[in-house]
Amino acid sequence: MSGQAKEAILQYIEEMDLKTDNKLPREEALAEMLGVSRITIRQALNDLAAEGIIFRRQGRGTFVNVDSLNIKVTFSPCMELTQMIKKSGYAPSVRLLNIQKVKREEEICSLLQMQPDEQLVVAEKLFLADDKICAFCRDYFGMNLIGGEEAFDMFSKYEDSIYKYIYELSGEKAQWDKVEIDTVNPAEIAGLKKYVSVKELGLSPYLYLKTLNYSEKDKPLVYANEYFNTEIIKFNLIRQKNIQY
Questions:
Q1: CB–CB of 108/86 below 8 Å?
Q2: What are the two backbone dihedrals, phi and then psi, of residue 75, each rounded to the nearest 5 degrees?
């Protein structure tokens, strides 16, 4: 419910004349306007504050952070790659390069809490922005998550998000993730050169994210290696300060 309230508040913000006034109505007024409880509104506002979209001033009220509305791509909340590409002003396209059963990598299998005899699956995708290489993703998950061999055989025909595919087969929704951030020379990305030339990758370092994605019940679903061409996608983040004065 708070998610729906959050979207409704974002819609309200889009319709505000922020050049004139960036103050939001009080919680009571928003609750009455949207037909939900104050608790729901408070949770939605807390989420928006955590994302830097609004800020609170004690004794004055809640205000829209106008600068945050100009940010196209953020680290949090995490959006799908095709959406990132669109928001960055490009036409997205996706190539499913490979989907295969691979030898168990014990570190990854442990992170995914897989069964001892469970098959590890990897899917590799290339994301393009106006036909330029934008990102490369290598997603690992356990065969049991998608229900076995029959579902695996269908995967090569599936062109949508891997998370939607997993949800359709398992009912598990990716809710949050834990990320380790690094950089890498694109020419050194393991296995990528068999699909594209070094020239196509460019010379600038790529942003490298090691991501473990969890369900609503905190169950690990997908371990991902994600590589981003930051000449195309620019990440931004508004951070709250926690300084002891």
A1: no
A2: -75, -35
CA-based Rg of the chain, rounded to a whole angstrom? 21
CB-based contacts of 177: which residues, under 8 Å, 6+ apart? Answer: 78, 211, 212, 213, 214
Give the chain's mean pLDDT. 86
Which CATH number applies to 81-228: 3.30.1490.20, 3.30.530.20, 3.40.50.300, 3.40.1410.10? 3.40.1410.10
The pLDDT score that the predictor gives to residue 1 is 64
DSSP β-bridge partners for residue 208: 182, 227
DSSP code of residue 34: H
Task: Return the half-sphere exposure (C-beta side, CA atoms, 13 A cut-off) of residue 241.
Answer: 3
Is 120 in contact with 105 (CB distance < 8 Å)? yes
**Reported confidence tier of residue 22, pLDDT bands at 50, 70, 90:** confident
Q: How far apart are CA 66 and CA 22, in angstroms?
A: 8
Q: Is CATH 1.10.10.10 the right assignment for the domain spanning 2-70?
A: yes
Classify residue 231 by burial, with Cβ atoms within 10 Å: 0-12, 13-18, 19+.
middle
d(CA 103, CA 122): 10
Task: Give the CB-side neighbour count of residue 19, counting CA atoms within 13 A.
Answer: 0
The two most distant CA atoms of the chain are separated, in Å, by 62
CB count within 10 Å of CB 34 equals 16
Domain locations along the chain: 2-70, 81-228
Place of tokens 């949508």: 160
* 6 pLDDT higher than 90: no
Joined tokens for residue 232: 């195309």
In this prediction the pTM is 0.74
